[in-house]
Amino acid sequence: MNLDEAKIKFSELLLGVRPSDREDVITWIKNSEEIQDFVSDSRIKILESIGQYLRRVIPSSGVLEGESLNEYEGNENCESDHIDAFIYPDDELDDLCEKGAMSRHYCRSCGSRQILPLNLYSHSFSAWELKWLFTRILPPLGDKLLLDVGSRHGAVLYGASEFSTASKIIGVEMNEEFCKITEAVIDLFSYTRIDVVNDDIRNQKELLSRADVIVLNNVFEQFLSEDDQVKCWNFIFSYVKRPGTVLVTVPSINQCLDNLNMSMPTGWAEEMHYDFENELVPDEVDLDSLGEICLYRVL
Prior knowledge:
Layout: H1 3-15, H2 19-31, H3 33-54, E1 80-82, H4 90-98, E2 105-106, E3 116-117, E4 119-121, H5 127-137, E5 145-149, H6 155-163, E6 168-173, H7 176-188, E7 194-198, H8 205-210, E8 213-217, H9 226-239, E9 246-250, H10 253-258, E10 269-272, H11 287-291, E11 294-298
Parallel strand pairs: 1-4, 5-6, 5-8, 6-7, 8-9
Antiparallel strand pairs: 2-3, 9-11, 10-11
Helix pairs in contact: 3-6, 5-6
């Protein structure tokens, strides 16, 4: 059933309602949490469909062949591996493990991955984390410009399109292959508000300076040398100066800078604190992952 057919069916349904009850039905549709949940869940299904498409073209780690990553500085007592949380949500990861294509464990003595838990590390938000980010954590985006620095396969861009009213959503990504993958998804799912730019963010000072919301999700520390990381942060401090600009970072800016023996410029930005009630967070959302999301407002 297409949109025009659905409109006809809906009109027929309303005509079948007693005239005295039609206004109440329309009010229920406008305000019903059930309808809102249905719409929200349908958007999750769209993101899951994108993940299914990406599984055909991107490895489970989310890392393309030829990419080089810096060593992950996690728990030194626990082995780490990469898994893309957007492409492989928990149910898909379970299927991988059942098929023997992936393991959540490893053996400390022989490396067979059968005994101790692996620390699985993702460069992407999951679909449910994106929903929570854009509907519960960030303030309403209205007609604002959202910029994702290091957008990779575009998960943040798709999440912003599904769950926010941002007027323009732009990703800047250095890897040409990721940009081509993102452009294919944009065409396949008819996203009209999304653009992707194949470039180093240091060449995009005009775009950076006019963005209203800037997402930096594990963007520098895993992919750049320390020297380039320092240059990127200094570039951000130099060109993100418009008061009220919001930055979303994982990990925190202070954690990123501590590893580089840097510090945030005094008076540049303040951390924005958000609260969420644990009991309202759906099971699909990792509370630890939510806790790593940091917000800042430029002063």
